[in-house]
Amino acid sequence: MEKDYLYNSLHIPNNIKINNEIICGKEKTIIAGPCTFASYEEAYSIAKELKKLGIKFFRAGAYKGRTNPYSFQGLQDEGIEILLKIKKELDLCIVTELLTINQAKKYAKDIDIIQVGSRNMYNYELLKELGKTNKPILLKRGFTATYKEWLLASEYILKEGNYNVILCERGIRGFNSDETRNILDIQAIPYIKKNSKLPIIVDPSHASGKDYIVESMSKASLIAGADGLIIEVHTNPSQSLCDSEQTINIETLKDVLKFKERIDKYEN
Ligand code: PEP
Ligand code: MN
After folding, report:
1. 206, 231, 233, 242: which to mutate for ligand 1, most atoms within 8 A of CB?
2. Which pLDDT tens digit goes with each residue over 3-18?
3. What are phi and psi of 170, to 5 degrees?
4. Can you give the pLDDT at residue 82?
5. Span of 44-58, 140-154, 176-190, 252-266 with lowest mean pLDDT
6. Which of 115, 121, 169, 202 to mutate to test the pocket of ligand 1 (most atoms within 8 A of CB)?
7. Which residues line ligand 1 (CB under 6 A)?
8. Across residues 177-191, what is the average pLDDT?
9. pTM over cut 0.85
10. Which of 7, 80, 206, 231 has the highest count of CB atoms within 10 angstroms of its CB?
């Protein structure tokens, strides 16, 4: 073990808990929801369907760091307020991305799992700020980041005293740009398991960019040992404002959940 991975090589004593519920523990954790949303009604109607399926972690982007500055940037502050309302109404944990230190200062206390996006994995000042909170941080792998860079990014959070870090493999850039969005690096799962004590989940949506690939990559990730999945789901994927091509419907999510239950049973 290299000395650089100081905290990754330590046994992190506690499981990550939210309201006394262990995440990424013995049972695999499923985080699901739309890429982003345009209104309270849209987000609520999806969250309600997910809740019916037993989903406890609702993902939805309020601040979107889009590649194109003219694309929808999310409902921003209003979006966070909507998510917090839904959290209360449906008793769901909210998973959402914060892009800046100011946003972290304002909202970290209210959000259950703070997502650091692929583009921000190298934003060390943001990572340090999040390290000062005690909130679970979902650290997405930069799309050109090596394992070493990714683990060192997690060290920035751990070093500040926040051990609640969940790593997320979300696909790396290859040479397929239209056919599939990225390449799911499934080897990351056993590599991280061997070289870190942190949990790792997989985002098959941004990895593949295609709805019809998401189910098989979800299953493959769980078999390879991932502690969970974060999946883009919409009740009406074609109406999703962002990433509709990679967004699965509720029926497909049901199939993924069935598979997850089988794996949980097999492993425990
Ligand atoms: C997302 O999950 O909404 C997202 C933008 O993902 P990534 O940062 O991995 O591109
Ligand atoms: Mn998306």
Report:
1. 206
2. 688 888 776 767 898 8
3. -130, 20
4. 98
5. 176-190
6. 115
7. 35, 61, 117-118, 140, 170, 203, 206
8. 94
9. yes
10. 231
The two three-digit tokens of residue 131, written as one number? 């390290």
Kindly state the percentage of the chain with pLDDT values over 70.
97
pLDDT by residue (tens digit) across 109-140?
Answer: 999 999 999 999 999 999 999 999 999 999 99
Angstrom distance (rounded) from CA 244 to CA 234:
9
Taking alpha carbons only, the member of 238, 218, 182 closest to residue 34 is: 238
How many A from CA of 125 to the centre of ligand 2? 24
Domains of the chain with bracketed CATH: 26-267 (3.20.20.70)
Q: Ligand 2 centre and the CA of 147: distance in Å?
A: 22
Report the distance separating Cα 195 and Cα 6, nearest Å: 11
Closest-CA residue, ligand 1 atom 10, reads 118
Average pLDDT over residues 149-157: 97
Q: Tell which atom from ligand 1 comes closest to the C-alpha of 64.
A: 5
